[in-house]
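worker-03 picked up job from queue 'complexes'. Input manifest follows; two sequence lines, order preserved.
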Amino acid sequence: MNTAVQQTDYDALSCKVSAISKHYLPCPRQIEECGFRDYSGIQMEYIRVLRMLSRRAYGKISRAVSSTMPVMNYGTYLRTVSIDLSIEEFMRKHQDEETQILNLGSGSDLRMIQLLARFPKTTYIDLDFQESVKLKAKVLRNSDQFVNFFQLNSSEGEEINTDRYKLLTADLKDVPRVLELLSRIASKKVPTLILTECVLCYIPQAESQQLIDSVAEYFTHGKWVSYDPIGGNKVNDRFGTIMQDNLRESRHLEMPTLMIYNSPESYALRLKNISHNIHIQIMWDYYMNEVSDEEKNRLKALQFLDEIEELEIMLSHYILLEATW
Amino acid sequence: MKLDDTIDSLRQGKHIPEETVYSLCLKSQELLMNEANVTHVDTPVTICGDIHGQLHDLLTLFDKSGGIEKNRYIFLGDFVDRGFYSLESFLLLLCYKLRYPDRITMIRGNHETRQITKVYGFYDEIVRKYGNSNVWRYCCEVFDYLSLGAIINDRIFCVHGGLSPDVTTINQIRSIDRKQEVPHEGAMCDLLWSDPDDVDTWSLSPRGAGFLFGRNEVEQFLHKNKFELIARAHQLVMEGYKEMFDGGLVTVWSAPNYCYRCGNVAAVLRVEDDLDRNYMIFEAVQAQDGVGNAIIPTKKPQMDYFL
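worker-03 finished. Artifact:
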């Protein structure tokens, strides 16, 4: 089961590479508002090194990239941009203070590079399964560009632990271990953004609730940003159950809470113990309301989008949650 | 006899040799070449919407609607892309057409083009199945000969997408030189790409090709050509079909659980001699067939979800 979940990192990575190669990403807002520099260069450097180190992982990713549908590029675009802008909002709010970012189940995500470069008072922590962390650490340690950036002084080591960037192993279902780790590396008093991007959906209900409550309680001030699928709660909506069946059958991947937190309202309940300020949005609404007409036209010109009805169905089953305390 | 063997193989999703595909495509081209841009069809007839390579659901469609041996069918296009059996679905329809020429009319959809099949899966499927793109090229040649519309009993206009600001009469469709890759604009493009919507007049389509058209455009077109219905496909409808504009237009969708994940039902529309409309709803076949074969290939060629 852990392997099935860990493998989803390749999906996320291939989706991102595909969206970049088709120029969905970076978008003008990421460049102007989030100040992103050399966005695709950083991603491609990662892929270049990955190719040298793990033919298997690279093969999976390049095969997937070549067959990515426009609907997937749209969804990846929205997922990535909405999270980036939410992080940016947090960073601006605390721009003169020390901050921490905790990416739970970070996989190959490279957000830390842009953020550490722009915010010198920020510490960034990536936690994930041992396999994912090992691979990511290996890639970062084998690129001159990344070695220079993180000031890594050795090419050995299965984790990374510098003053400002920590890439460490943790099984998120083992909440005591996560807390023990945090107590050693993260300050309770520093405002902290916690990111779970397609992570909570793979964790059983009890463990995921314990993870949310314990981690959020650890930090005095924080913002939790979570992107996940929801099963859907409308009459005749079979998207969620079909998704569970498809993923179980084709990849032995379980989504234990997909039909429990099946609507924005029920999903938001997961954060109710820690925050009275919860904002949750369906990605289709995000596309309709938050993406400007000009930007929609830019996207439309990238690839023919067929079918828009399918896009609506897909995006109506993914949410972005933002909770502050 | 040989055609019947090929039909058997196709129905079982078996591999078809490249030479067989080549000769099938050549014969189909000869047959389609003589068809007009807009063909005339008599009732009773069953109108079918998008298939998108969902071979097993196409077989269900024929089973539940009486079968090609005894019934007439119009397919509104989008035979290929998205599903895992685009080739088999398209070839099966071609074989039926060769075997029963007056029982099946095939209209071109916006996916029956070189450009779109390169993005949406048919090209990749062929390269996966044959190791080269020859079969894709043969099929694309056939696409260029598919007709653009059909008229049932002079009363119902069938088309894949919808109307065009450049088309007010059927004669304007008849004068199109259809034997080409679908252009990015103009009448031929619009017929394959446009969508009905709640708009006052012709509007830009969110798809990047074709137009949105509304009640006014539909009523004018019906009146001018003395039609009572536009039957089209092109848009996923969760309930399988959707009538609009007081029954002046219908969308028929025939790919249940589209892309193996949308959870929709499918429909076909049977038009009787008195032009009565009967919708037949059907569901997707289970992921495994009766003898335990996976309907969805175990090696998934693409990801379907954001994970």
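worker-03 released lock.
Chain A has one domain: 2-324.
Chain A touches chain B through 44 residues (CB under 8 Å).
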